[in-house]
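To whoever picks this up:

The nightly regression suite flagged Dihydroorotate dehydrogenase as changed. Nothing in the input moved, so I suspect the structure step. Input below, exactly as stored in the fixture:
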Amino acid sequence: MSETLKVSLPGLDLKNPIMPASGCFQYGKRFAKLFDLSELGAIIVKAATLEPRVGNPNPRVVRVTEGLLNSVGLKNPGLDHILADELPFLEQFDVPIIANVAGSEIADYVETAKRISQAPNVQALELNISCPNVKEGGMVFGTKPESARRLTSAVKEVSAVPVYVKLSPNVTSIVEMARSVSDVADGITMINTFVGLQLDKNGRPELGNKIGGVSGRAIKPIALNMAYEVRQALPDIPLIAMGGIATVDDVLDYISVGADAVAVGTENFNNPYICKELVADLEQEVAKRKLNHLYDLKGRAL
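Regenerated output under the current build:
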């Protein structure tokens, strides 16, 4: 793979800046049947919680215009299973793993982060303080700057690897939230989904949990602006951006507002090869433009 796409971030040496977002790739087993996961820049695996979670009531996912509305509720088999079965499967691939960590209270996050950060192929953590469809934890930390900072500091103390904080867009000022963790986190990922609601023809919520998180192409202009604002305010913090990415032009847009790398979410459900295709498309685009490195375009919109 070309040197022109390589990216270096705290704890992460990436072949390229493309990775699947947490929750949209599970733990990679189904995708590994389709292509070599070693082609990816990194993989952000599905959220891990200390105990198994059954998730929210069905239906959990519905289509909306140019996107999805989901209320999965952090369903996962629990930390013990993930450490024993899911992460070992990924050891066969030459790709950095970013483990998404969630919880209900600080003690849950701390214990999960401490243990999962010691897994041999986990090179960074993504601290999930921004899930909009769980009743406890998550957004409680993700909407209050001091709470976010306190949680991040607690996790940093026990983590064996760098910690990236995943920001919620459901706040008055995402710049304020980013600033609150900027001197304790190793980096930021942004954004998670927007709180949304969809009704059926009888005027009833379609999701079993009623509200959920909106993702997909429809949110890209808003997500792009938020990345733009955070990069202007915090020019040096490592930033992995996401929100509505479906084409190589979308990737270039995020790089242009100063993102260091990008994560692809909803489009994985529309096209399971999308991350692989974006890597190839990005390499071709850099060659076509005769760039020395992709970062020749970084921050050009600022």
